[in-house]
Amino acid sequence: MELRRTRAIKRSYRESDDDDDDRGDKKKETERDVSLLSYAERLQPIADKGLCGDAELEEEVAAVDEKARQVARLIAGSKYCVVLTGAGISTAEPASISDFRGPNGVWTCEKEGRTVPPSPRSMDDAKPTRTHEAIARLVTRGLVAHVVTQNIDALHLRAKMDVTAVPRARLSEVHGTAYALFCVACAVETRLAHMVDSIGLRPVAAVCRTCRAPLCDRLCDWDSPLPDGEINRAISELKKADLLLVVGSSMRIRPVGLWPRYTLKAGGKLVVINLQNTHLDKKSHVRIFAKSDQVFDGIMDELDFEEPTALNPPELNTRATNQIPEPVKNI
Ligand SMILES: [Zn+2]
């Protein structure tokens, strides 16, 4: 069962497998009302957050356009393309969710004693960016087989008026999500319309409508085991990929930052689209230093996408009810 792993895989910013000594003093959840806090504020403090505020580089427009055309050709010619996304795809409008280690990222500002620039909206009101839209269209068109995301904002699953969302079955949320609850007994997932008021895979005041067992949040904290089903599927998909696009991630977070090696080891090609350096830049077939929206605009132009005319069928997002489970006391 997902929450009963004996060797839980957890996140770390370090190469070492020993993640027990890189945390600072923990605050007890009982001391804080987490419902009032952002995701970053909810996370337990850790002493070492790794490199923050690394320089962001942007290539000339013409170079980005040429590389975007090259990536489009790679996508069109691939047999099994997988996309791995990070916080960098959610920083642009109309999402405007802070990343962690960019120049104004949460960890960078914390390290420099600055206040994080305020977002114009809450995470609940964030909308998918052009990158989210493009990825969803590529999945719908059958050009991308699977999406692995480190993001907990569920923006891959949120459709806009004229754009399909990524079907849940084609998405692995490897750090969990702020927009679902999970039944520890029957493994049914209930999607939420609003950010969950909890973190750390803890029971919430609700029970499963299928089996009446307690529901837990799916929002991983530093010491939470990563969700088995999600990470096993993600690794399986990355091994199958003959083309992997890493988008908006500096790949500094472990273990997910190491997973592109599964694709490389299996002979697949790697494309990295990110403003900051990554440890796999030299292994990449195409490396683009640019904002992801700019690159995906170019990719979609090259692939000559027509505008979709219909919303995605609701059944594609299996188990995505967007309904808050009925509350129950004494859990
Ligand atoms: Zn259940």
Automatic annotation (TrEMBL):
Zn(2+) binds at residues 183, 186, 208, 211. The keyword Nucleotidyltransferase does not apply. GO terms for molecular function: histone deacetylase activity, NAD-dependent; metal ion binding; NAD+ binding. Keywords: Metal-binding, NAD, Transferase, Zinc. Residues 61-306 form the Deacetylase sirtuin-type domain. One of its GO terms (cellular component) is nucleus. InterPro entries: DHS-like_NAD/FAD-binding_dom (IPR029035), NAD-dep_sirtuin_deacylases (IPR050134), Sirtuin (IPR003000), Ssirtuin_cat_dom (IPR026590). It comes from the Eukaryota. Residues 1-11 have a biased composition (Basic residues). PROSITE patterns: SIRTUIN (PS50305). The active site is at residue 175. Residues 1-32, 308-331 are annotated as: Disordered. Residues 23-32 have a biased composition (Basic and acidic residues). Belongs to the sirtuin family. Class I subfamily. This is NAD-dependent protein deacetylase sirtuin-6. The gene is SIRT6.
